[in-house]
Amino acid sequence: MSKLTYEAAVNYLESFIDYEKKTSYTYSPRLWNLERMRLLLNSLGEPHQKLKVIHIAGSKGKGSTAAMIYSILNTAGYKTGLYTSPHLVTPLERFRVNSKLMSENQFCELVEQFQPHIDEVNKKMDIGKLSFFEIYTAMGFLFFAMENVDFLVLEVGLGGRLDATNVVEQPLVSVITQISLEHTNLLGDNLASIATEKAGIIKTNGLVISSPQQPEVMEVIEKSCAKQNAKLFQVGKDISFERLPKKRKFHDIDQSFTSFEDKPGQYFTLKSNIAEYSRCRLPLLGKHQLINAATAVGAIELLRFHGYAISEEQVKSGLEQTVWPARMQVIGREPTILLDVAHSPESARVLRESIYETFTYDKLILVVGISGDKDIKGIGAELCPIADIAILTKASNNPRAAAPARIEQEWKDFNITLVIRNTVASALDYARSIAGKNDLICITGSFYPIGEAITLLGVSIT
Asked: Structure pTM?
């Protein structure tokens, strides 16, 4: 039993530099130094070398794709770990094994075990100090090794080439989801530069599955695979999907969901070079999730090269049981309440299109909090045309949060009513007070306000 309390353990880790919250820093091999990770892991007995890893990078959909792969492997009977970031409510979300989060006691014991190793690495001033994410990632490797998982589904934090997760030398499969312009101040101001960073997870003689990409992105991925003698498989070429027509939109569906057709979700067929998966159901909404599903199934199929064969029924069952909070997630009815972590113009566009094709409603009410380093006007340009009112707020735990008044200034030229509420709680209260039973409330803009909303509304994250 650890002597540390959970609160003390969290506070200790939060004392290290957290690039998820920091507003300005340089993306360089000194700050993002894999040598620090290697030293720390070496002192812990190289736990990452004991794991069978499926490594996932990308700009969009990498968390959802990871969740689908994880669910399929769980359903197939494998003890599977999932490491993702950032978290919505609790750091324990970052570490999942067979649908359960790491316990507070396990977390405290790991932190206590890590402290002397962290101190030793941080004495080596020539390589800089360990970051919050590096420590969490190393904790994940040790935790999953101690749990003796059969597979670890490992999501990159930022980029790929210099990411702390990239100490994995030979993943079973490298997965690259769709790449778009993001973190341009860090990864580069063009798609090719960003793709180069993401493709850094491709390893010698590896197996790679890629979502559909822009031509300049795919060119980078293909060149990287050729250089590493890695085999590349592509969604749209080696595996494809066809969406099955829906009879009704979500708001028209009876709440009892008594038949297959009436369950909220979407239905599709997948076809690859080796199998056909007919009439699949995915609870995650939006056409973009079908791209993620095809990518996930492609990764599962590549495990055959390592001697693992997952049946078509196990794949379908795993997709149907996928849980991934705050991605087009419906958490309430009359009014419908929707959570989505869209935080860029591109993800806001996907959210807008998904709302349009999925829901019917009388009035759309946005509850929005955005980080100050994001393209606030670009997000508004996508969402404001379909909304009636936007309630602008900020999360209490996000030091990067844009002031609601700044969002108002950036959105003032859009044809939409803007209202400021300075806390997430007051924004939610106001949204529900003005919503009719046929309205849609969409909470979006950042992980942080959604995390607060999940806590306030009592939504499960597992």
From this structure: 0.93
